Amino acid sequence: MSADAPRLFDVEQVRQDFPILHQEVNGHPLVYLDNAATTQKPQCVIDALVEYYSQYNSNVHRGAHALSDRATAAFEGARRTVAKALNSPSPKQLIWTRGTTEAINLIAQCWARVHLREGDEILVSMLEHHSNIVPWQLAAQAAGAKVKPIPLNEAGEIDLDALREMVSEKTRLISVAHVSNALGSVNPIDRICALARDVGAISVVDGAQGIAHYEVDVQALGCDFYAFSGHKIFGPTGIGALWGRTELLDAMPPYQGGGEMIESVSFDGTTFNGLPYKFEAGTPDIAGAIGLAAAFDYLNQFSREAIQAHEAALLDHCCTRMAGIDGLRRVGNAQHSAAVFSFLVDGTHPADIGMLLDQQGIAIRTGHHCAQPLMSGWSIPGTARASFSLYNTLEEIDVLYEALSKVLTLLR
Ligand code: PLP
Prior knowledge:
alpha/beta; Aspartate Aminotransferase, domain 1; globular; binds pyridoxal-5'-phosphate
């Protein structure tokens, strides 16, 4: 085997890398199926954080001493690792943010607020997370522009014909999720970006869920911006990134003022630093960036195809088992779906299901999943959602099935 051969994907060995999984919750072995909310961290990510804080904690870019040099090298190395993972032409196009939410707000404030005019339109789909709706509403309100929803079909897929009808010379920006957190639908990002380009609009991809399941190539997708959160891809909370096209980023004003983002400051006028620092005011989340790079390094050991095949098998097994439960219906059934299973059961409320499953050590999420327009559009209060990751097993789905069957006899 060559030194570069991927590590064999063996779920039992993978589970050994995640210490949190090996515990009991409410007297039962933990079954963690809330990965769309946040993923667990492998030991190497935890170690990277501990190593930074215990061996070279120091501020970056400004210290003239060894620890600061080491921290700066690790921090900028992390940027290179993450930029390379996205196939970014340059690491300067990768701006650290607190996560997807901050990344989208950055574009809304620094691009949309500058460019939007009265009557302009921003298109977002009906399945978007609030983070990909509200920042655009704020920017649109200030300009007298409109945020218009792109409809879905019954399976929970973006209706591309409807989108083709909607795009016009008024369209300034189209922003869609790579993968829906509520339904699992994988959106045809390359086609949507091409539609935006056709009318001279900017394309934004909310990659909060996409990054967790797929290898992202921003050049192949053809997007102008890609936003994601580290905690959804086995990295720490509080760190994420915005990738953007250089011409757009260069032309945008800074997001926040402070240290690091300036070239020189005087009361006669301040000049700004270049990319990416222009958008990174203040001391960044140094440990977070280093931890996030460790998470990418962890994933890069495996073939992404092997992980995707495992997750597809999990979803398939879940669909088969759940089909055996009377009155259960999957919400969203996109042809191309990530390992997310949203469901409702006749005569029960999702919150009760979640609470009773928790008593059996099973963590799922219930509610509107920060996608209220989707839920109200489909006239449902919310869903129960099991979302899977690389460390989940077919046996855990069997445990979910047994527990759910028990729960439903109590509830009905
Ligand atoms: N977009 C989607 C599709 C998400 O699933 C989430 C989080 O659940 C977000 C945006 C917001 O991510 P964060 O809270 O990490 O900024």
